[in-house]
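Colleagues,

For the teaching module next term, I've prepared a clean inverse folding example: a structure given as C-alpha coordinates, and then the sequence designed for it. I'd like students to try predicting residues themselves before seeing the answer, so please don't circulate the second half yet.
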Protein backbone atom coordinates (compact mmCIF):
# COMPACT_ATOMS: atom_id res chain seq x y z
CA UNK A 1 0.00 0.00 0.00
CA UNK A 2 1.29 3.44 -0.86
CA UNK A 3 0.15 6.50 1.05
CA UNK A 4 -0.08 10.21 0.37
CA UNK A 5 0.36 12.80 3.13
CA UNK A 6 -0.99 16.32 2.79
CA UNK A 7 -1.35 19.30 5.10
CA UNK A 8 -4.48 21.15 4.03
CA UNK A 9 -6.70 24.02 5.15
CA UNK A 10 -8.88 22.78 8.00
CA UNK A 11 -12.27 23.94 6.74
CA UNK A 12 -11.63 23.02 3.11
CA UNK A 13 -10.39 19.54 4.06
CA UNK A 14 -13.27 18.76 6.43
CA UNK A 15 -15.25 16.95 3.71
CA UNK A 16 -12.28 14.61 3.23
CA UNK A 17 -11.82 14.00 6.97
CA UNK A 18 -15.48 13.73 7.96
CA UNK A 19 -16.03 10.08 6.87
CA UNK A 20 -13.12 8.98 9.08
CA UNK A 21 -14.54 10.94 12.03
CA UNK A 22 -17.96 9.38 11.50
CA UNK A 23 -16.48 5.87 11.30
CA UNK A 24 -14.45 6.21 14.50
CA UNK A 25 -16.59 8.59 16.53
CA UNK A 26 -20.24 8.16 15.55
CA UNK A 27 -22.66 9.99 17.87
CA UNK A 28 -23.53 6.86 19.86
CA UNK A 29 -19.82 6.30 20.66
CA UNK A 30 -19.13 9.96 21.47
CA UNK A 31 -22.05 9.90 23.93
CA UNK A 32 -20.14 7.35 26.04
CA UNK A 33 -16.81 9.21 26.13
CA UNK A 34 -15.50 11.46 28.93
CA UNK A 35 -15.61 14.43 26.56
CA UNK A 36 -19.21 13.93 25.45
CA UNK A 37 -20.96 17.30 25.44
CA UNK A 38 -17.75 19.32 24.98
CA UNK A 39 -17.75 21.78 22.08
CA UNK A 40 -14.41 21.64 20.27
CA UNK A 41 -12.72 24.11 17.93
CA UNK A 42 -12.43 23.47 14.19
CA UNK A 43 -8.93 22.65 12.95
CA UNK A 44 -6.96 25.39 11.19
CA UNK A 45 -5.02 22.76 9.24
CA UNK A 46 -5.36 19.02 8.79
CA UNK A 47 -2.71 16.40 8.17
CA UNK A 48 -4.38 13.77 6.01
CA UNK A 49 -2.93 10.38 5.17
CA UNK A 50 -4.69 8.84 2.19
CA UNK A 51 -4.50 5.36 0.73
CA UNK A 52 -4.24 4.37 -2.96
CA UNK A 53 -7.97 4.95 -3.43
CA UNK A 54 -7.75 8.48 -2.01
CA UNK A 55 -9.59 7.58 1.20
CA UNK A 56 -8.41 9.33 4.35
CA UNK A 57 -7.05 6.62 6.64
CA UNK A 58 -5.36 8.84 9.24
CA UNK A 59 -5.97 12.41 10.41
CA UNK A 60 -4.37 14.96 12.74
CA UNK A 61 -5.92 18.39 13.29
CA UNK A 62 -3.70 21.42 13.86
CA UNK A 63 -4.85 24.46 15.81
CA UNK A 64 -3.07 27.79 16.14
CA UNK A 65 -3.87 29.88 19.18
CA UNK A 66 -2.61 32.61 21.43
CA UNK A 67 -3.16 31.32 24.95
CA UNK A 68 -2.02 32.38 28.38
CA UNK A 69 0.24 30.44 30.69
CA UNK A 70 0.22 31.91 34.18
CA UNK A 71 -1.12 35.11 32.63
CA UNK A 72 1.62 35.38 29.98
CA UNK A 73 0.48 35.34 26.34
CA UNK A 74 2.13 32.89 23.98
CA UNK A 75 1.57 31.22 20.62
CA UNK A 76 0.87 27.51 20.84
CA UNK A 77 0.06 24.74 18.44
CA UNK A 78 -2.82 22.47 19.31
CA UNK A 79 -3.03 18.90 18.11
CA UNK A 80 -6.35 17.10 18.13
CA UNK A 81 -8.53 14.63 16.32
CA UNK A 82 -5.78 12.07 15.91
CA UNK A 83 -7.60 9.25 14.15
CA UNK A 84 -6.54 6.14 12.26
CA UNK A 85 -8.95 3.83 10.47
CA UNK A 86 -9.25 0.55 12.40
CA UNK A 87 -8.05 -1.72 9.59
CA UNK A 88 -4.71 0.14 9.16
CA UNK A 89 -3.76 0.73 12.79
CA UNK A 90 -0.37 -0.23 14.23
CA UNK A 91 1.46 0.55 10.97
CA UNK A 92 2.99 3.85 12.09
CA UNK A 93 0.52 6.10 10.25
CA UNK A 94 -0.43 8.14 13.32
CA UNK A 95 3.27 8.63 14.11
CA UNK A 96 3.90 9.84 10.56
CA UNK A 97 0.93 12.23 10.71
CA UNK A 98 1.87 13.46 14.19
CA UNK A 99 5.45 14.10 13.04
CA UNK A 100 4.10 16.05 10.05
CA UNK A 101 2.01 18.17 12.45
CA UNK A 102 4.99 18.89 14.71
CA UNK A 103 7.21 19.74 11.73
CA UNK A 104 4.52 22.06 10.36
CA UNK A 105 4.52 23.96 13.65
CA UNK A 106 8.34 24.01 13.74
CA UNK A 107 8.44 25.43 10.21
CA UNK A 108 6.13 28.28 11.22
CA UNK A 109 8.73 29.30 13.85
CA UNK A 110 6.16 31.20 15.88
CA UNK A 111 4.72 28.34 17.91
CA UNK A 112 6.27 28.10 21.36
CA UNK A 113 5.05 24.61 22.23
CA UNK A 114 2.35 22.10 21.29
CA UNK A 115 -0.57 20.92 23.41
CA UNK A 116 -2.87 17.94 22.96
CA UNK A 117 -5.49 16.28 25.12
CA UNK A 118 -6.01 12.54 25.41
CA UNK A 119 -7.58 9.83 27.48
CA UNK A 120 -5.26 7.94 29.87
CA UNK A 121 -5.00 4.81 27.72
CA UNK A 122 -3.58 6.90 24.82
CA UNK A 123 -0.95 8.70 26.94
CA UNK A 124 1.87 6.14 26.44
CA UNK A 125 1.63 6.60 22.66
CA UNK A 126 2.10 10.37 22.93
CA UNK A 127 4.71 10.20 25.68
CA UNK A 128 6.80 7.87 23.50
CA UNK A 129 6.74 10.68 20.90
CA UNK A 130 8.03 13.44 23.15
CA UNK A 131 4.86 14.68 24.88
CA UNK A 132 4.87 15.23 28.64
CA UNK A 133 1.94 15.58 31.03
CA UNK A 134 0.88 19.09 31.97
CA UNK A 135 0.22 18.94 35.71
CA UNK A 136 -1.60 22.25 36.15
CA UNK A 137 -5.06 23.64 35.50
CA UNK A 138 -6.48 24.21 32.03
CA UNK A 139 -9.32 26.61 31.24
CA UNK A 140 -11.36 26.79 28.04
CA UNK A 141 -14.42 28.52 26.69
CA UNK A 142 -17.70 26.65 26.24
CA UNK A 143 -20.89 27.99 24.68
CA UNK A 144 -23.48 29.01 27.26
CA UNK A 145 -21.00 28.34 30.09
CA UNK A 146 -18.17 30.80 29.45
CA UNK A 147 -14.72 30.09 30.84
CA UNK A 148 -14.59 26.69 32.55
CA UNK A 149 -11.95 24.38 33.97
CA UNK A 150 -11.23 21.65 31.42
CA UNK A 151 -10.61 18.24 32.92
CA UNK A 152 -12.52 15.91 30.62
CA UNK A 153 -9.26 14.70 29.07
CA UNK A 154 -5.67 15.20 30.20
CA UNK A 155 -3.28 17.76 28.68
CA UNK A 156 0.13 16.85 27.28
CA UNK A 157 2.76 19.28 25.99
CA UNK A 158 5.63 19.06 23.50
CA UNK A 159 8.65 21.36 23.17
CA UNK A 160 8.92 23.38 19.98
CA UNK A 161 10.46 26.85 19.98
CA UNK A 162 10.78 26.79 23.77
CA UNK A 163 10.57 24.25 26.55
CA UNK A 164 6.89 23.56 27.19
CA UNK A 165 5.65 24.31 30.70
CA UNK A 166 4.45 21.33 32.72
CA UNK A 167 2.88 23.21 35.65
CA UNK A 168 0.82 26.31 36.22
CA UNK A 169 -2.38 27.54 34.65
CA UNK A 170 -3.13 27.38 30.93
CA UNK A 171 -6.04 29.30 29.47
CA UNK A 172 -6.74 28.26 25.89
CA UNK A 173 -8.64 31.53 25.37
CA UNK A 174 -11.22 29.71 23.29
CA UNK A 175 -12.65 26.28 22.61
CA UNK A 176 -10.52 23.20 23.30
CA UNK A 177 -9.26 20.95 20.52
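(Answer key — instructors only)
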Amino acid sequence: MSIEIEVLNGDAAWKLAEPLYQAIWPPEVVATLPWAGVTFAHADLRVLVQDDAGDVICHVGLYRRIITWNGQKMHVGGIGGVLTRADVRNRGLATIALNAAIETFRAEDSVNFAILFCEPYRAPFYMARGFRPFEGDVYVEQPDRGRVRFDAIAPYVHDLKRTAPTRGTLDLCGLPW
